[in-house]
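Subject: sequence -> structure tokens, single chain

Hey, anyone have a minute? Need the predicted structure for the following. Not urgent.
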Amino acid sequence: MKKTPVFLESLVTNMLRLRAICPFSWRVFQFRPISCEPLIIQMNKCTDEEQMFGFIERNKAILSEKQVGCAFDMLWKLQKQKTSLLKNAEYVRDHPQFLTLHNLATNKFKLMNDDTLVNVLYVTQQFAGEAHDPLVEALVTEAWRRLERFDIKLLSEFSSCLADQHLYFSPLMGKIADIVHRNLETTQDLSSLSVLMVNISSLISRHFQQQLVNKTELLFDTIDSSEVNVAKSIAKFLRNVRYRYQPLLERCNNVFLSNVDHLDLDSISKILSVYKFLQFNSFEFIIMAKKKLTEMIPLCNHPASFVKLFVALGPIAGPEEKKQLKSTMLLMSEDLTGEQALAVLGAMGDMESRNSCLIKRVTSVLHKHLDGYKPLELLKITQELTFLHFQRKEFFAKLRELLLSYLKNSFIPTEVSVLVRAISLLPSPHLDEVGISRIEAVLPQCDLNNLSSFATSVLRWIQHDHMYLDNMTAKQLKLLQKLDHYGRQRLQHSNSLDLLRKELKSLKGNTFPESLLEEMIATLQHFMDDINYINVGEIASFISSTDYLSTLLLDRIASVAVQQIEKIHPFTIPAIIRPFSVLNYDPPQRDEFLGTCVQHLNSYLDFECILDKRKKPLPYGSHNIALGQLPEMPWESNIEIVGSRLPPGAERIALEFLDSKALCRNIPHMKGKSAMKKRHLEILGYRVIQISQFEWNSMALSTKDARMDYLRECIFGEVKSCL
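Reply:
Had a minute. Here:
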């Protein structure tokens, strides 16, 4: 036997002595491979989770912080390669070796570089089962400490991790928004910026919002036309801030159109949802999306995917596709979750589908999950079932009981407003004293939207209760007075048109209480000089919905349109013109105003839309016929053309009774629809007599004889219009 060389014996002896003397140092400075590469290469060769877990078990004692990060990354890559039905996040999370990896990360996260730290945070959140994972909390805290040195790409990834935890309003997200604001001028990476814009959108001011939009426009040409995810993020940001900015939406839409063949169901669904919310119309995208979604009908055989298809395709589908969607949904309805049933109900409302069998099946699922819905979801259920004429006493009884229990424990103005609105839509909308006191408690914190919603609900109760509960009706009238007081107070304290605009965006003028409408118009007139090319479309849209004729505001809108037309997007022109049409008003510079608007709009339009005989647009593929070369069509008309067969001296007379909706709310001025109807009848040869309901129901015409005399005067006298 060969003897061990003396120098080796001496070396081993010295090492053992060193280990005995310095056990702490031995533990800290463990032996590691000269290179990390061999272990990382071994990880990359793993083809499933079992191989990865075997690797972790064999090497857990020597894995460095970098290798721990690589192990997390590899587990997530393996998960992403699976289809949705084969993903097994729960199995991975509960595996003993995942717990080992979790503990290694807990011990080594402070040694990780910034990229590894954020990546481990992201993957841990994807697999996390606990509501508060200690490792996630530790990683977030460490990332916060390093935040200022993150580049924009890493900052966007970290903000997405916070968004996954719904920390949109956290101080940490506010810190990220501040960093983005400070570095916006030098930022050149639109891919990362677009993600950040979505995640910080709840915290930014209107000025910062406009800065982000301007920066996005500037950088848009730097991205490749295939960057669908960037375009989706930009569109989502505009949705989050409720900003229908046409130039950016069109550029995003062009990206979607050029990549429509590569869009999956989830992407198409999200794009259509954004377009619907922002009221952005892209006929071409809808046609292409409809074709692609229709092809997916036989491929979606799982409730989760089919519900998404039903919601996306249903509202834009043709009769045959709708029939196919509803029949398939009937077969799957018993397997729906509560969330899926709610989505289907919303889509049925959009489709105006009153399929009784499907409604019954869906409401059965809703009833089973009713206790788990949040107030806003309960409002949606109430609205859709009311619209679909659903009638089932036991369902509405449980819904009412649930809404009242929420209301008694709610102190948030918006939530109270949602609950009260839902209760007012029920078949028996009565609210007791406890409900009224809850409304009164939150009034000082309410914005105009909440106050308007409360007023509408109270008016419904009064209309329902006045015949039965006189004492309660008196309390409701007092509540209306308080609503009026707080509404006036809020309007009188308004100091900025921008802040007022924010509340007007989701406010419907036709539901705004009469008592507050005048104060609202007076406030808008106070800020009249602040109306410009940026906000003129929004202000015009609100005025259109009020039915209130303010010549001062309309003249200002016309003036801004004429003077700043080059800065106004052409698609904003219809909104600007609409109040003049609805309210039947011509500004002093009518010809210049209308001419400028129409010319600006026409300069942008470069397509034709061909209608069939029923005035429905033909499919896009049928537009290959040049105008002037259309084949003859059997046009139908039920309008009798007035000829000259009447006896000499005879005339045709059209008598129209005008209700309150035909007139402006503040003065007896005929609105555009009734004026147009009158002109059309006159073109057909009729003498038109229009009688206001206020005149007809007046004390002067309270008897039958008085009314007969009045009609004789209108028809046989010189009176042309009895307004």
